[in-house]
Amino acid sequence: MKPIILFDGICNFCHSSIQFIIKRDPNAYFLFSSLQSDIGQSLLKQNKIPFTMDSMILIENGKVYDKSSAVLRICKNLSGLWKYMYIFVIIPLPIRDLIYNIVAKNRYKWFGKKDTCILPNHEIRKRFLS
């Protein structure tokens, strides 16, 4: 199965991040699901991920990555220079996740949120698990 990115479907920053990934994933390597969707909730349960997890999550080859580790592994598979962001994996995890947590904690305040998840256009919709 293709790697799946779970994201906060009502977060403006998260939505923009998914659009960013889609534009730099021309081979459709990733599939997507919001954490709030039935499939997202099922994937959390199936992978023994706490429902309170407040992070972007990557499920790839049977392994679960969250926070900065998920972001860097996603970047590794993007086109262009973004794949070189993976070099930041050398930064100790607590430092990477500290930065991630600051952004995650303030994402609604800084970027806002929506009342509902946004539906992608028809071409991209097939990459979203519903």
Beta fraction: 5-15%
The pLDDT mean sits at 88
> Could you give the order of the helices and strands?
EHEHEEHHH
By DSSP (H or I, 4+ residues per run), the number of helices equals: 5
- The biggest beta sheet, please? 4 strands, mixed
Taken together, the total number of domains comes to 1
Give Rg in angstroms.
14 Å
Tell me what the structure shows.
One of its GO terms (molecular function) is protein-disulfide reductase activity. This protein has 130 residues and is α+β, with helices and mostly antiparallel strands. It has five helices and four strands; from the N terminus they run βαβαββααα. It has one domain. The chain has a four-stranded mixed β-sheet with strand order 2-1-3-4, with helices on one face. β1 (4-7), α1 and β2 form a beta-alpha-beta unit.
Can you describe this structure in just a few lines?
It comes from Lederbergia lenta (Bacillus lentus). This protein has 130 residues and is of the alpha+beta class.
